[in-house]
Structure formats: C-alpha cells, structure tokens
C-alpha cells in the first residue's frame, strides 16, 4: 500500500484493513483544514492594511514597515512596535514591548513541534509562520494530516496576504498625509482594543487587563514614553506567575478560525 | 538610521522566540508558569497599549477625540464586527469627534 505523505512529511495513517475506502485522508480540495486555513488567511491578511497604514502614521517608512511584516511577522508584536514608536517611545522600548508580546509564540512553537514533528529545514520555515492563527487552525483539527494542512495553509496564506496588504496599507498611509485628520490615531486605539478583546473571555484576564491599563496610566506622567508599557508587562508577568487561572488565558487568536467554539 | 537597528533586533528576537519552541527540548519549556506568563503578558501589554494610545500624549494624560474611538470600537466589538471594521469605526469616530470640535 502506498503511504501518502502530508505536507509536513508525516505519513498518513495506514488503513489497517487495507481497504480503499478512507475516511481520511481526504483530498486537498475537500480538506476542511485547508478551507478553514484559507478563510482565516484572507480575514487575517486583510487587516494587514490597517497595520501598513498605521505604521506609516507612526513615522516608520515603507521599507521599515515591510521589514516588520516580512521578518517579525506577528501581528500583535508589530502593532506594539509601532504603537510605542508612535507614542514617542524609544526604539529600545518598542523592541522590548514587541519581544515580550511575542513570547507566546514560543509556547505555540512547542505545541506545533509536538503536534507536527517537522524535521530538518522545514522546522525553520515552520517557526516563521508560527503565530496565533496558524496554531489555532492546526489545533482545531483532530487528524494529524489535517492538523498539518491547517497549520501550513493558514501560516503560509497569512504570511503572503499579510505582506501584500501591509504594502497596500503603507502606500495608502503615504497617500493619506496628515494622520490625525483621518482619525488614524483613533484607528490605532481600535486596533489594540480589537487585539485585546478576544482574549477577555473570563473574569481573570479582564481583571489583569484593567489593572495593567491603570498601572500604565498612573506611570505615564512619571517615566519616559514607552516605559509605562513595560511596567505593565512586569505586573502582568507577576500576575501570571502567581495566578492559578486557566493556563490558556491570553493565548487566543485575533481572528477565530472556528467561530462556533469559544463564543462570547 | 537608529530605528532600523531596533527593528532588526526585534525581528531577530521574534524569529528566535518562535524557533525556540521547535529546538529547545519540550521538558525545559513545559513549565505551566511559562505558559501562563506568556498569556497574561499578552493581555497586559495589549491593555497597556490600548490605554497609552487612548489617553497619553507624550508624558501627559489627555482626554481627546481618541476616547470616542475607544468607545466606538468597544461597541463594534460588542456587536462582533470583524477586526478591520472595528479599526475603521475607530478612525471614523475620532475623525467625527474632531469635526464636532473635540481636541
């Protein structure tokens, strides 16, 4: 019997009876994971427009904006970087906020490594597309081949579309001129609230959010711009270390691939 | 330019963080504290960034058109609008508030 290899190189389960009537693996065109991966790629990729436009409004140039989308490639961290720079913070503070916000990707990487077992060079490609949405798409599937398809289709799809739409947004931002006139500062506020919102499904994360927002506002007048965010991060880390809350709090995707789960 | 250095450092750290999940032995990272801290850090940073972008202007706290954006975005999210719509609603609310004379 032929063994069909999935994208990640994991042999699909061989039917023990040796029959040909597989329930799995399904063809690529009928794969639910591919369908979900593609739709999540479009939904997530599209909001690259807002990142591109806001990045220009924050004072980054086109190349710097594209560098963040091509190389950093993690929506929340990219918004954090430009949010700190736009608020007058230093590059060091922006880098710190983006890096701290990206720590959850290490947790996702560990999960994906255990689930997909990518080998060789594939691991280095998998790492770059390990983000909230590709992880959520993979973990929402139960068959190994579907998990792998979901991860790669969502990951690569988002990577391509996120960069295309970042470029479109950056060109739009360049054309718009004065950011305040178009309410782009309001768009930044909405973007951060939109990134935070899906993570506030229980009382504890909501409490952490309120405390961190208050800590930020209390420290703004006393320390240089950008630093209040890092103070809030320290408070959040302490809360996480000592809390006994649900271990997955805060590890939700910005765009939910399986909207019937996790309804508010 | 100085900002480029920080952009490239941030990009390098981001990739190495992702890669760590694949290369570091799982038992070193399976500490439940680590998972929880990664989650609460995400919540805390996004909440902090929301607050800073709404109320701060350099080192002072101000109430201006951006508060209208925060409220409007909250309503849009409550109504389950998709992300891009939320962002556009935020921009529209701030622009409208300024038209109506808000600082």
How would you concisely characterize the structure shown here?
The complex is a heterodimer of chains A (about 260) and B (about 100). Chain A has twelve helices and no strands.
Defining key terms:
heterodimer; A: 264 residues; mainly alpha; 2 domains; 12 helices; globular; disordered N terminus; B: 103 residues; two-stranded antiparallel sheet; elongated
Structure, explained:
- The complex is a heterodimer of chains A (264) and B (103).
- Chain A contains twelve helices and no strands.
- The N and C termini of chain A lie far apart (46 Å).
- Chain A is globular and about 60 Å long.
- Chain A is mainly alpha-helical and 264 residues long.
- Chain A folds into two domains: 31-199, no CATH class; 201-246, no CATH class.
- Chain B has a domain at 63-103.
- Chain B has a two-stranded antiparallel ribbon with strand order 1-2.
- The mean pLDDT of chain B is 93.
- Classes of the chains: A mainly alpha (264), B mainly alpha (103).
How many strands of chain A? 0
Largest sheet of chain A: none
What is the C-alpha radius of gyration of chain B, as a whole number of Å?
19 Å
Morphology call of chain B: elongated
Find the structural class of chain A using helix and strand composition. Answer: mainly alpha
SS class of chain B: mainly alpha
Mean pLDDT reading of chain A: 87
Q: Would you identify the regions of chain B where 5 or more consecutive residues have pLDDT less than 50?
A: none
State the helical fraction of chain B: over 70%
Name the helicity range of chain A: 55-70%
Q: What is the alpha-carbon Rg of chain A in Å?
A: 20 Å
Largest sheet strand order of chain B: 1-2
Measured distance between first and last alpha carbons of chain B: 33 Å
Beta-strand content of chain B: under 5%
* Order of SSEs of chain B: HHHEEHH
Put simply, the count of helices of chain A is 12
> Mean pLDDT score of chain B, rounded?
93
From the N-terminal CA to the C-terminal CA of chain A, the straight-line distance is 46 Å
Q: What is the approximate shape of chain A?
A: globular
